Amino acid sequence: MEQTAADAGTTACHSVGATTLQTPVGDRIIGPRPALIAVAHGSRDPRSAATMYAVVEQLSTARPDLDVRLAFLDLNAPSVDQVVDAVAAEGHSHAVVVPLLLGSAFHARVDLPGMLAAARARHPRLQLTQADVLGADTRVIAALRDRVREALAVSSLGQVFPARSRLGIAMAAVGSSSAAANARTAQVARQLAAITGLPAEICFATTAPSLPEAVSALRARGADHILVAPWFLAPGLLTDRLEAAAPRLVHAPTIGAHPLLTDVILDRYIAASALPLKLSA
User: Which residues contact 232 (CB under 8 A, 6 or more apart)?
Assistant: First the structure.
């Protein structure tokens, strides 16, 4: 897979300018390369923004030839409007907006498209393309598996890891008012169970089943030890709520700046920015 990112620095807003290079991708080309605007949710918790800056820095390291920016939907700066305005002012003709979201719900389907529609009205010469969300990509699930392994390695649970029937995973997500959305997230827990070889139960921070309910379900399945795997990109108020609900359990880190997450972001960018290959005469 082609790697991508710009030298964004600690603010993730540094511009390297629009480039005229063209990159073949199968029978398509990318060029001139659009800016990559990575859009995070935003949080009042400073750890969340710090984590998303680390994600963008990793993108910059992977592909310093792209102009990568970080924007937030809410609660943090810079906003989507501010970043789009800056990209337009610096002469870009195209920007791909990659939502750093694990689900395709209101923010991805309504909120962000509305912001981009308003931005297109302000900047008619700037093409804005919204990429797909990160979603339940198998690589993101594999990144969560790695966080589980990290937590096991530094905890007493690592000693019981070979006894797989005794260890269970409570995969904790945000939760939605949509039963269909929660069912899709539950499928992620089943995939996590498949790649770890450990029983897993889904739970949510904002709806049922709760973390204690998932723990009870795992114990009923024979698990003596429970590890909480947060299906979150960054720590924040909800992950704190989960830890408070089960302070005696081991909680794995959030996904954060993982190389596999970088791969997925770049794939979303490439898929959205690829243009038909122009054949020479």
Answer: 102, 172, 173, 174, 238, 239, 254, 255
pTM value is: 0.84
| CA 48/CA 256 separation, integer angstroms | 9
Q: Are 246 and 108 in contact (CB under 8 A)?
A: no
The β-bridge relationship of strands 167-173 and 127-130 is unpaired
Contact present, 138 and 267 (Cβ < 8 Å): no
- Whether 89 and 35 have beta carbons less than 8 Å apart is answered as no
Cα-based distances in Å from 232 to 45, 136, 170, 229: 14, 12, 13, 9
Rounded to a whole number, what is the distance in angstroms from the first to the last CA of the chain?
A: 29
Query: CB atoms < 10 A from the CB of 93, how many?
Result: 14
With both helix axes pointing from N to C terminus, report the angle between 80-89 and 112-122 in degrees, rounded to the nearest 10: 30
pLDDT tens for 96-130 read 999 999 988 888 889 999 999 999 999 999 999 99
Q: What is the CA radius of gyration of the chain?
A: 20
Tell me the per-residue pLDDT of 162-196, one tens digit each, with 9 for 90 and over: 455 589 999 999 999 889 999 999 999 999 999 99
